[in-house]
Amino acid sequence: MKPPRETVQTDVLIIGSGAGGAVTAAALARAGRTVMVLEEGPWVDPDALEPFSLEEMVAKYRHGGSCAALGRPAIAYAEGRCVGGSTEINSGLYHRLPPELAEEWQRDYRIDEFTTDALDGYAGRIEAELGVSRLPGAPPASSAVLERGAAKLGWRSVEFSRVFRYESNGLAVKQTMARTLLPAATEAGAQVVADCRVAKLVRDGRRVVGAACEQTMPDGSTRELFVRADHVFVCAGATQTPALLQRSGIRRNIGRGLKMHPTVKIAARFNSPIDHGDVPMHRVTEFAPGLTIGGSASRRGHVALALADSDADYADALAHWEHVAVYYAAIRSEGSGRVLALPGARSPLVTYNLTEGDMSRLARALVHLGEVLLAAGATELYPSVTGGGVARGPDDLVQWWDALTRNAANLMTVHLTSTVRIGENRERTGADSFGRVWGYDNLRVNDASLLPEAPGVNPQGPIMAVVARNTDQFLTEA
Amino acid sequence: MLWFERQVVSTLMSPTLDAGTRSAVESYVATTLHSMPEHLRAGVAAESIVLGSRSWLEHRVGRFDPHALPARLDRWRSSKIDPIRQYVRLLHSLVLFAENEFAAGAGGSM
To answer: How close, in Å, is residue A410 to chain B by CA atoms?
Structure first.
């Protein structure tokens, strides 16, 4: 028999502790508000596990990393499920929102006070607090590959900043939310509760009065918890935020319009060993923001997976896995998807439809990625296309134009956005210009769901800037 | 993990793995399948039941030959039916990732 439900009270309830929830929590707690943060996943010491390892996937990734958006083809995706959310598992690459996108979104979705100047102001504050920086010294070989290949082709490439601090001994420390803004929020009085899943929000007319939760205790038992709150921020990410709202009976323009950066990969073999401990920080930006080329995590397990995706004979390459690294090309997609909470299920159904134009762009992306890797000295390229064929020279890349079909493409993504878009255009948005859900006075969304489109860059920076802006607005209103 | 899934995982594993690593790989695959979204897990389980029915019946009458499974998996790997191809690809990916991660020196130098 389950113990009776306990009720607790807070001024502001924040659901989710990633880039959205942590920024919101720190700002509100520092402003003197009583804040409670509920995180579905566990607390995991940020120093305890090797980045991108199997152990990290089991401990920190939602579904152990086995998520997929259904469609033709299905697209595998990864997101965090732990205190700190996806900031604990991403590569830490940091970008501001490109000014042209801020203008486009402001115009198309009629977002009030959404200017590059305003967003850059918030971005600057976040960068100063977290420590956004470039690598001190020369890039690792895996990153220099992209710089070298682009230079040979006359293409633009840049080393992007990362949310990293460098210690005096040279050690790079990613500034995840579990290391930075969540401790800051706690220090300012916020309470962060891990292992606590919100089943649904409880509504009363135009107000949300609280959240019905299930908390998993250290001994594995569970207890029901009801958190009564004056204000609720849902910051659970682009799949879980709309799913929670739908489970709570809030459905208008919620969960539609999912956006992502569909990604193809190549396992590239070189004549000499290449580093595998870090994610390359260089990006080829010649075709950005429509197409970006970069490097992925390349532990031995990732190398094996990427080699196998081609369906070619990869035994020799795997035997020399130290010479192989994984690179990707990601596109801005004109397709879109949907998140749908299923009755009785804990996980939502996620779907995504690529357009024919997207398939063309992915083929072009794969060929450009091949070109840059061959120019950098790669000797064998294994594409993430079943039956795509191994490329050993530029002439071999031609076959990939036709090989990348819906049946053969093995795609993935790590950036999901746009399931509760903001703006005053009520036909296209789920929340107003500052994230307040239409029809509710005290319910706000403050995470990746709000971005009207996928930004074509790693979205953590844009998410944090928009979230900080919305939180400031909240403080002026409530 | 269902009986047939266990057979497939065992078949997909490298024969050179020691017993401890085989057990760790199988445990990882079981954990990952268990933590998949319900609708995806249901789809995989349904495929396991359909694709594994013949093997299970053979097993029930004591005539299951695990050595016949690799050829069957090879056929499914190149099947024209997308879900069948994806079924093998999913289990192979999990096995491949785990056995390479469990291998010594999975990570790399900074």
So the answer is: 10
CATH 3.40.50 assigned to domain A141-170+262-413? The reply is no
CB contact under 8 A, A304 and B110: no
Asked if pLDDT for residue B109 goes beyond 70, the answer is no
Q: Give CA–CA dist A386/A377, Å, rounded.
A: 24
In chain A, the N- to C-terminal Cα span, in Å, equals 40
Cβ–Cβ of B82/A299 closer than 8 Å? no
pLDDT band of residue A276 (cuts 50, 70, 90) is: confident
B12 alpha-carbon distance from chain centroid: 6
User: Which residues in chain A have Cβ-Cβ distances shorter than 8 Å to B44?
Assistant: none
pLDDT digits (tens, 9 = 90+) for A132-143: 999 888 899 999
ipTM comes to 0.91
Annotated active-site residue A261? The verdict is no
For the record, the structure tokens of B84 come out as 């069948």
The residues on B that touch A, with CB distances below 8 Å, are 28, 31-33, 35-40, 77, 82, 85-86, 89-90, 92-94, 96-103, 105-110
Summarize the confidence of residues A385-409 as an average pLDDT. 96
A349-353 and A164-166 as β-strands: parallel, antiparallel, unpaired?
unpaired
- Domain span(s) for CATH 3.50.50.60 in chain A: 6-43+95-131+176-255+418-477
Are A347 and B38 within 8 A, CB to CB? yes
For the domain covering A6-43+95-131+176-255+418-477, report its CATH number. 3.50.50.60
